[in-house]
Amino acid sequence: MGTIGRRRLLESAGVLLAAGGISAGGVTVAVEEENKAGKPLPLQLKDFEPRSMLHMPETKVERSRYPLIDIHTHLSRVAKSAHGVGIGEEMEYAAPVDAVLPLMDRKNIRMMVNLTGGVGKGLDEAIGKFQTPHPDRFLTFTEPWWERSNQPGYGQFQADEIVRAHKVGARGLKVLKTLGLYLREKVSTGPLVKVDDKRFDPMWESCGSLGIPVAIHVSDPEAFFLPIDRFNERFEELNNHPDWSFHGKDFPSNAEILEARNRVLERHPKTQFIVLHVGNDAENLPYVAECMDRFPNMHVEMGARIGELGRQPRMSRKFFDKYQDRILFGTDAVPHGTDTPQQVFTDKLYEIYYRFLETEDEYFDYAPARVPPQGRWRIYGLGLPDEILKKVYHENAARLLQIKI
């Protein structure tokens, strides 16, 4: 095949997989870039950074149109053991409060909610570092005391701990995907504890009686439950982080986890649940909508999922229109370097969220990362009207948190 033929093939296919397939360094592709010998040069897929030839308007939104509450941040976290479960009351902090406030002021962020505030003395410490000196800028959620979950009387103990946490200033409960994907009956061994295990019923009820919301994350993207192969659209991400995969072994399916969560929502109708990451199923908005219709106590936030929402803009816009009173703004952000690139606090991170929500710009990056962290696609803005923006940016969260903004 001549030069013109090879170029047309590449243009129609996007990339051409080499015969070598998957290697330790990633997927090798052949690119039509003639060297002096007239041969194509090899290129690792991780180094492939195509520049779009579309000439599109670009709107820079430096500040949100209205003040916002970021309901999903991680300013602290419980130290974790090798098996991924928080241990004891020891806390880790990614940045001091003085390093976060200037960003908040620049980006019109009125308040950040630190979801991973820990338990016991760790919770007291986290509240003391952020919420106590700046009660109008930071709120803190507590977490379940996972390491005690297999002890006798845990249900009542955990319910009492929620009451204690609320008394010292916690404004909600955060449930990590520890429940459903990591927590086992014997800490690091034994069967996985199910999301709807009834030992947690007193905990859910305690939150309902106190009027504090539960921010719950019990699953991951659907692709994480599928084989890491050439059909998986998150191949690059999972190939770089194979420990993120929940395919095989004794893991339940994504559908099983979500249905177990739904049973919890159904059993505790007086408890308000913020189901994080667009209901843990942003790729399937019809299913999320079905759940929202079934459970009036279900709310969602969008942290680290505009990459999914933005590639289905028409369906997403209809979703925002219908559920505008139950969608919250969140980023799942951390101050620096402790998570994936799309989640690190930067001006650009927030500007991308604002652009997605406020403009009708087309085909732009959904994360500041050099290579798209979730998949090689781009997103489209929703151009939400002011009345919906106000609700998403702060009104819905303020109502659930029972605060004025």
What does this entry look like structurally?
It is a single chain. By secondary structure, this protein is an alpha/beta fold. The protein is 34% helix and 17% strand. The chain has 14 helices and 15 strands. The strands form 5 sheets. A 5-stranded parallel sheet has the order 9-12-13-14-15. Strands 1-2-3 form a 3-stranded antiparallel sheet. Strands 4-7-8 form a 3-stranded parallel sheet. The N and C termini lie far apart (65 Å).
In short:
The protein contains 14 helices and 15 strands. The protein has a five-stranded parallel sheet with strand order 9-12-13-14-15. The protein has a three-stranded antiparallel sheet with strand order 1-2-3.
Task: Give me the CATH fold name of the largest domain.
Answer: TIM Barrel
Number of self-contained structural domains: 2
Largest sheet: number of strands, sense, barrel closure: 5 strands, parallel
Give the strand line-up of the largest sheet.
9-12-13-14-15
Helix residue percentage: 25-40%
- SS element count, helices: 14
Q: How would you state the average pLDDT, rounded?
A: 89
Q: From the helix content, strand content and strand pairing, which structural class follows? A: alpha/beta
CATH architecture heading of the largest domain:
Alpha-Beta Barrel
How many whole angstroms does the radius of gyration measure?
22 Å
List the helices and strands and how they pair.
Blueprint: H1 3-13, E1 16-23, E2 26-31, E3 41-44, E4 68-73, E5 76-80, E6 86-93, H2 97-107, E7 109-114, H3 120-131, E8 138-140, H4 154-167, E9 173-175, H5 178-181, E10 184-186, E11 189-192, H6 201-210, E12 214-216, H7 235-240, H8 254-267, E13 273-275, H9 276-280, H10 285-294, E14 298-301, H11 306-309, H12 313-322, E15 327-328, H13 347-358, H14 386-401
Parallel strand pairs: 4-7, 7-8, 9-12, 12-13, 13-14, 14-15
Antiparallel strand pairs: 1-2, 2-3, 5-6, 10-11
